[in-house]
Amino acid sequence: MEYKRPIGLDIDLETGVIPGAKKLVRRLSDLKGYFLDEEAYNELLKEDPVVYEVYAIEQEEKEGDLNFATTVLYPGKVGKEFFFTKGHFHAKADRAEIYYGIKGKGGMLLQTPEGEAEWIPMGPGTVVYVPPYWAHRTVNTGNEPFIFLAIYPSDAGHDYGSIKEKGFSKIVIEEDGEVKVVDNPRWKE
Ligand SMILES: O=P(O)(O)OC[C@H]1O[C@](O)(CO)[C@@H](O)[C@@H]1O
Ligand SMILES: [Fe+2]
């Protein structure tokens, strides 16, 4: 039998960079239709800021193996809504995932296929267990990059479809200087 080699490396805890990882950049233009306030979206699109970067060490899509990735989610808002990752179910919906907060301040929105949402605040050292079947999106509620590690089965895959279409049933906004998790007025059952 041919064994894969173990991997040991140091994540840069200040920048979130994983040496040798594949880098993915998502700009505001990659998130068309995701934010509630279209006017604010179009205005900010003139600058088309980077919303988040992902540094991933990925294996083949085989049962039993694991991927890991850091995400650097930049601070910012579209209207009242804080910057977030697209969010997804797993293509293999029963695959779970672990997140670990490294730097900055934010949280995770999780949601069942029926639309029951949960908000978990995150900071450095927070561990979040994403159970099978729950969609997940991270949100930066602070004013510095929010950096975290995700560890997930390499055959989990991403299913962006229904989140792209319907969003989450909750949104995370700033109102009167406070972070609020409120019902998404555009949410449809
Ligand atoms: O795939 P999205 O929803 O854009 O979010 C990116 C993050 O989610 C992951 O896909 C893990 O769930 C990572 O690759 C990355 O940390
Ligand atoms: Fe995931």
UniProtKB/TrEMBL annotation:
GO annotation, biological process: gluconeogenesis; glycolytic process
Pathway(s) the chain acts in: Carbohydrate degradation; glycolysis; D-glyceraldehyde 3-phosphate and glycerone phosphate from D-glucose: step 2/4
InterPro entries: G6P_isomerase_archaea/bacteria, G6P_isomerase_prok, GPI/OXD, RmlC-like_jellyroll, RmlC_Cupin_sf
Coiled-coil annotated spans: none
GO MF assignments: glucose-6-phosphate isomerase activity; iron ion binding
Annotated Glucose-6-phosphate isomerase prokaryote domain residues: 25-182
GO cellular component labels: cytoplasm
Gene3D superfamilies tied to this protein: Jelly Rolls
Swiss-Prot/TrEMBL catalytic activity: alpha-D-glucose 6-phosphate = beta-D-fructose 6-phosphate
Compartments it resides in: Cytoplasm
Annotated keywords: Cytoplasm, Gluconeogenesis, Glycolysis, Iron, Isomerase, Metal-binding
Protein name: Glucose-6-phosphate isomerase
EC number: 5.3.1.9
Similarity comment: family membership: Belongs to the archaeal-type GPI family.
The protein's assembly and partners: Homodimer.
